[in-house]
Amino acid sequence: MDKGGCLVVISGFSGVGKGTVVKRLVEKYGYVLSVSATTRSPRQGETDGKDYFFLKKEEFLDAVDKDGFIEYAMYVDNYYGTPRAFVEDRLAAGKRIILEIEVQGALAVKERYPEAALIFITTPSAAELKNRLAGRGTESEEVILARLDRAVTESEYIDNYDYIVCNESGQLEDCVDEIHHIIESGNRAVRSQAAFIRELKEQLAEFRK
Ligand code: 5GP
């Protein structure tokens, strides 16, 4: 990546607050957020071109055919993809780009850009994740259940990430600073969080019983 640009891939369970973390990384430390394309409908307050490029399924698949995404994936019945031109241009200009994407996309990015830093944001426990999802109040019960089920699947991918960071209630800035520190230090130290990951996976698996 020319001129010191870098790619930071942030994933995390739905409801973990990663959108807020990413927003603060942009405001506080000048990261550039890539705007994805999706076939899902806009939520209240979301703007086309700012939160997502909202595309019809045919438009999305047309862009796939034209190699318009560096990765794309299906998530809870909708497509999501990272526009290629934006990422390539900003990297060439030396920017630090954040992709806020789900696990399959993250792994695809790592294949294509091995120097990308993959960061997974989690809650301290599975129970807290469920509370936050229910408290958001923007999704139906059915969607909440689908997202919890998806979290169980996603937990299987956590080991592929370079870092796991906790977003504890009321500690947003700590989470933001920790991520920035990881990127700044370029630290590739092996995590010592295997026990935490194992416990979280066990708690999440309870949602499927
Ligand atoms: P939401 O519908 O809640 O905005 O996003 C659902 C999931 O899609 C989140 O996990 C989000 O990180 C992921 N996502 C958003 N944009 C992309 C993208 O461009 N590619 C992939 N693979 N996932 C994305």
What tags apply to this protein structure?
Rossmann fold, four-stranded mixed sheet, 209 residues, 9 strands, globular, binds guanosine-5'-monophosphate, five-stranded parallel sheet, alpha/beta
Characterize this entry briefly:
By secondary structure, this protein is an alpha/beta fold. It has a single domain (6-37, 92-207), classed as P-loop containing nucleotide triphosphate hydrolases (Rossmann fold).
Report on the structure:
It is a single chain. The protein has 209 residues and is of the alpha/beta class. The chain has one domain: Rossmann fold, CATH 3.40.50. The chain is built from 8 helices and 9 strands. α1 (18-29) crosses α7 (172-185) and α6 (141-155) runs antiparallel to α8. The structure holds guanosine-5'-monophosphate. Guanosine-5'-monophosphate binds next to β5, β6 and α4.
Oligomer category: single chain
How much helicity do the residues have?
Answer: 40-55%
In N-to-C order, the SSE pattern is: EHEEEHEEHEHEHHEHH
Number of domains: 1
| Global shape | globular
In round numbers, the mean pLDDT is 91
The largest sheet is: 5 strands, parallel
Distance between the termini: 45 Å
Q: What is the topology, as strand order, of the major beta sheet? A: 2-7-1-8-9
Q: Which ions, cofactors or small ligands are bound in this entry?
A: guanosine-5'-monophosphate
Beta content comes to: 15-25%
CATH homologous superfamily (4th level) name: P-loop containing nucleotide triphosphate hydrolases
Count every beta strand, where a strand is a DSSP E run of 2 or more residues: 9
Task: Name the CATH class.
Answer: Alpha Beta
- The CATH architecture would be 3-Layer(aba) Sandwich
Structural class: alpha/beta
